[in-house]
Amino acid sequence: MSWIEALLLGIIQGLTEFLPVSSSGHLEITKFILGDNSLPEDSMLMTVVLHAATAISTLVVFRKDLLEIFQGLFQFKWNEETKFSLKIILSMIPAGIVGVFFNDEIESLFGGRLLLVGSMLIVTAILLLLADRAKTTDKGVSYWASLIIGISQAIAIMPGISRSGATISTSVLLGIDRSKAARFSFLMVVPLILGAMAKDIMSGEIVYESTQMIPLIVGFMAAFITGILACTWMISLVKKAKLSWFALWCLLVGSIAIVYTFIA
User: Fold this and answer.
1) How far apart are CA 171 and CA 189, in angstroms?
2) Contact, 135 vs 175, CB < 8 A?
3) Coil, helix or strand for 139?
4) What is the pTM of this model?
5) pLDDT tens digit sequence for 126-157
6) H helices within the chain, ranges in order?
7) Is residue 232 within 8 Å of residue 116, measured between CB atoms?
């Protein structure tokens, strides 16, 4: 992989990890366009690096929130920070179960399946349109809601379904305040990303070659910088209920992918 391809993948990962347009779906389409016919495990190192970059960008954007959470936890009291942490853990359970018991089935969904990616992008578009029309409230995230949001996150493992789009849309449709929905959505994924990275690294399937150094650095920096910008922008957009444009984009890209599948 050249540094230009790594730059492109990094920018796409950074933008689409937070913007509700599906990072996995767009990366699959980009790899297809670039002629990358390698198996998922062949590009695992770059995938791990790009996800690490967006995880760190999340920590940077929510550094104040995370500091408050950790300070509250170390008080060892049943306070709001402890309750929030438990809700995050509860939201991780569905995706954790899917990742542990259905890993092979998940990996089989990746690798140039444009029809699946296109169909799931249209599902994402529908979710965003529904969320944009939901009523604005000041309701917080309950334990039951955190589990349902977690189920949405598990379903969003499929390429083409936006994780942020699915979790934020589910939260808003459950009547949760938009700002709180965005905050919960972005923070709940960090432990899962770190866990998935650890699992991939410990699997022993990642192969590093010295020629990969420059592309990996370029991809990381591109994903990190664009991730910070996209995360900040997305928070603002969710508050203003302006997700329809992303719905139209998902609908357009998804339709193109589906049509291309049948005419290619």
Assistant:
1) 14
2) yes
3) strand
4) 0.81
5) 999 998 888 878 888 999 999 999 999 999 88
6) 3-18, 23-33, 44-61, 63-73, 80-101, 103-107, 114-132, 143-155, 163-173, 178-202, 213-239, 244-263
7) no
| pLDDT at 26 (0 to 100) | 73
pLDDT of residue 40: 45
The three-state secondary structure class of 93 is helix
Q: CB–CB of 261/87 below 8 Å?
A: no
Q: What tokens were used for 113? A: 């399946």
CA angle 171, 175, 178 (to 5 degrees): 60
| Count of all residues that appear for the chain in the document | 264
Each domain of the chain, given as residue ranges in start order, spans 3-263
Nearest to 8 by CA among 219, 214, 226: 219
Tens-digit pLDDT profile for the chain (264 aa)? 678 888 988 898 888 788 888 877 777 777 677 666 554 444 678 888 888 898 899 999 999 888 888 888 888 788 888 999 999 999 989 988 887 777 777 777 666 677 888 899 999 999 999 988 888 788 889 999 999 999 999 998 888 888 888 999 999 999 999 888 988 998 888 887 777 777 767 766 665 566 678 888 999 999 999 999 999 998 888 887 778 888 999 999 899 888 888 886
Q: Say if residues 193 and 50 touch (Cβ distance below 8 Å).
A: no
- Partner residues linked to 176 by β-bridges: 139
- 3-class secondary structure, 150: helix
Phi, psi of 99 (to 5 degrees): -65, -35
Please give the DSSP secondary-structure letter assigned to residue 136. P
CA distance 214 to 220: 10
CA distances from 240 to 21, 133, 175, 231, 236 (A): 18, 11, 15, 15, 6
Interatomic CA distance for residues 228 and 236, integer angstroms: 13
